[in-house]
Design a protein that fits this description.
Layout: H1 5-10, E1 23-27, H2 31-45, E2 50-54, H3 57-69, E3 74-80, H4 88-98, E4 103-109, H5 117-123, E5 129-133, H6 138-155, E6 163-167, H7 172-183, E7 188-192, H8 196-204, E8 214-217, E9 222-224, H9 228-234, E10 245-251, H10 255-266, E11 271-274, H11 281-284, H12 301-315, E12 318-320, E13 325-331, E14 334-339, E15 344-352, E16 356-358, H13 364-367, E17 374-376, E18 390-394, H14 398-408, E19 413-417, H15 429-437, E20 441-444, E21 447-453, E22 460-465, E23 470-475, E24 478-481, E25 485-487, E26 498-499, E27 502-503, E28 535-537, H16 549-568
Parallel strand pairs: 1-2, 1-3, 3-4, 4-5, 6-7, 10-11, 10-15, 11-12, 15-28, 17-24, 18-19, 18-24, 19-20
Antiparallel strand pairs: 6-8, 8-9, 13-14, 14-15, 16-25, 21-22, 22-23, 26-27
Helix pairs in contact: 3-4, 10-12, 10-16, 14-15
This protein binds flavin-adenine dinucleotide.
Length: about 575
């Protein structure tokens, strides 16, 4: 019997018959609070959820145990932070062992100080959300609880699969396809090519199991070994550029490019966004961004950038995916962007927001296993597959820390490999504390990966401990590499000045107005303007950028203001094309 997550949330089976409704569970030793919450929540959510209230830790745990025994689903666990018998965070931990899919909510007093128990609980990952009591308006309570329930429902098995993907668990092309579908928020079900269902689906269509991945749409439209552009078009996005002229071309659809697109389009500029893969950039593959303003419980990078992409599109930005740019030319006042496919877009201004690519380990045997147990960047879609396995994370920055924490939710053991003698040099303090508190994460300092082993997929790593001069081989199911990166700027012509690959802008181009060689005008460059007038840079690819989502967003909003300034000045004084302005050959 099929039951969708919406049905499950509503307590209905596919035939409409009522099943036991998921539970919203409340525990507080203050009877008034329990009664008020039970009444308020039942009034609003009672149709779809059963609200259970308990007045003590002992009674609460006993009831939750009974619910486990009866295989009942708990959606929310709401516990007061201080119940005498046990702190609320500890109660949530015990309760969560019985109901691991439930979202944990800590009830706290209104206290915007660092002493509030929610500060520590969120930092240590002991709670997903908080509610403050007393709640002033029922509507505020309802809005918060609706959000928590929506997040809970998202984690349930999707009831409708738009696509079936059949492929190898460790096949790099299958990995790329699953990653793309995840990034586009497309519900799909994955079947291994040697599993019963996968084999059956291929045999039923007369398909060769050696040619994977295979992607089957709900209407049976089938693609064998699909190219990126095909995948993008199959999910309804645009992978072909049919616009040849516009006001501004934005290269890259990460947070910087998407924000620039939102502001440019909303302020009346005709904007074309050219993106090499799919929208979201680095942020789009980050499972949880905790430091983006306005999201006290964090926000998934994917969700944040997906919304920005839709917003840009709704304001009228023309979004084109799977279109890497390959060159940039100046023709008088026109700036011409060349796409790798050969077509060109002519604009009055260009914003480069291409971010950075991860730095490589440079170990040939590991490079050969990329996608087959070796992954560069975030551990988004792979994390679930690491259930019960030993995995390794290389790196000591915030992204490595976040990846380790995310993986620790699924893997048996996560080992962080750090070349230096401490995490503190490169990682935020809050993450270090979370790692120290997390179960199953080990940090190995002074350690480098020197080799990889495995036929077809990663099986072991050779690690070298520099401090003790020891080398050992350890079994490894996966290696996640997060060691910083190189800016995506190789495609730019020499006239766009760079330092270590990062694009110079504003005062770094010409500190004294006209006196810097390479800057052709009498006026000084605008703050985010590159050494080529009318060409701007935003986000991580810019020299001195902060490498944060919010700063990339800030750059994206600022740069549009500067583009207006440049265009409003009538481009006066733009000289003939500078030397080196044709870019690498197509
Ligand atoms: C795993 C992970 C976790 C992170 N966590 C946090 C966090 O918690 N908080 C935080 O503030 N920051 C975090 N960051 C950093 C943050 O994601 C980046 O600072 C931010 O994404 C930079 O935005 P951007 O738009 O400049 O570049 P990017 O996000 O890198 O986007 C650049 C885009 O340009 C595209 N592109 C590149 N070259 C071309 C080309 N030639 N043609 C067309 N398109 C091209 C790329 O495909 C990409 O989509 C994290 C990063 C990672 C990897």
């Amino acid at each position: 019997m099929n039951t969708t997550s919406a049905d499950a949330a509503a307590g209905r089976r596919a035939d409409g018959e009522r099943i036991s409704r998921p539970v919203i569970f409340v525990v507080d030793d203050d009877a008034g609070v329990v009664r008020a919450l039970r009444d308020d929540l039942t009034r609003r959510f009672g149709e779809d959820f059963r609200v259970i209230g308990e007045l003590s830790v002992t009674a609460g745990l006993a009831t939750l145990r009974e619910l486990t025994d009866r295989h009942e689903t708990v959606a929310l666990l709401i516990a007061d932070h201080d119940m005498g018998e046990m702190p609320g965070a500890d109660f949530l931990a015990r309760a969560h062992e019985m109901h691991p899919l439930a979202k944990r909510v800590l009830l706290v007093e209104r206290d915007y100080s660092v002493r509030s128990p929610i500060v520590q609980a969120m930092t240590l990952g002991q709670a997903d959300y908080h509610l403050t009591k007393p709640w002033m308006l029922e509507q505020h309570l309802y809005r918060s609880v609706s959000e928590f329930l929506a997040e809970w429902a998202k984690d349930q098995e999707a009831g409708f699969d738009l696509f079936h993907v059949i492929g190898g668990r460790r096949d790099p092309d299958t990995h790329k396809l699953r990653e793309l579908l995840t990034r586009f928020n497309v519900p799909f079900r994955f079947h291994t090519v040697d599993g019963e269902q996968g084999r059956g689906m291929l045999a039923g269509r007369g398909l060769d199991p050696s040619r994977v991945p295979v992607m089957i749409r709900h209407d049976d439209y089938t693609m064998v070994e699909p190219a990126t552009a095909q995948i993008i078009e199959a999910v309804g996005a645009n992978a072909r550029n049919d616009v040849s002229e516009c006001d501004v071309v934005i290269v890259g659809a990460g947070p910087a490019g998407l924000t620039a697109a939102v502001y440019a389009a909303s302020e009346g500029l005709q904007a074309v966004v050219l993106e090499e893969t799919v929208s979201g950039g680095q942020a789009g593959s980050s499972p949880m961004i905790r430091n983006y303003p306005g999201f006290p419980h964090g926000v998934s990078g994917h969700e944040l950038t997906r919304r920005a992409c839709e917003q840009a599109w709704m304001f009228g930005a023309h979004m084109v995916f799977s279109q890497p740019t390959a060159g940039l030319e100046c023709r008088g006042e026109e700036r011409v962007v060349r796409i790798a496919s050969g077509s060109r877009v002519t604009a009055r201004a260009v914003i480069i927001a291409t971010g950075i690519a991860w730095r490589r380990l440079g170990v040939p045997r590991l490079e050969a296993l990329i996608g087959s147990g070796v992954f560069y960047g975030a551990a988004g879609s792979e994390a679930r597959a690491m259930e019960g396995r030993d995995v390794f994370v290389v790196g000591a920055g915030n992204s490595a820390g976040q990846a380790a924490l995310h993986l620790a939710r699924h893997a048996r053991r996560v080992t962080m490999l750090v070349r230096g003698d401490s995490l503190a040099r490169s990682m935020s303090d809050y993450l270090i504390r979370e790692i120290e508190a997390a179960r199953g994460i080990t940090v190995r300092l002074h350690t480098e990966v020197t080799d990889g082993h495995g036929s077809g997929h990663l099986e072991a790593l050779t690690l070298h401990d520099k401090l003790h001069g020891r080398t050992e081989q350890v079994p490894a199911a996966a290696l996640f590499v997060l060691i910083g990166g190189e800016p995506h700027t190789q495609w730019l012509p020499a006239a766009v000045q760079r330092r270590h690959g990062y694009i110079l802008t504003g005062r770094d181009v010409a500190r004294d107005g006209a006196h810097r060689p390479g800057w052709p005008l009498d006026r000084a460059p605008l703050p985010l303007e590159t050494s080529v007038p009318g060409v701007f840079a935003a986000g991580d690819a810019r020299y001195r950028s902060i490498k944060r989502v919010a700063s990339a967003v800030g750059d994206g909003a600022t740069v549009v203001r500067l583009v207006h300034e440049y265009l409003d000045a009538g481009n006066a004084g733009v000289p003939p094309p500078a030397a080196g302005m044709t870019g690498p050959p197509a």
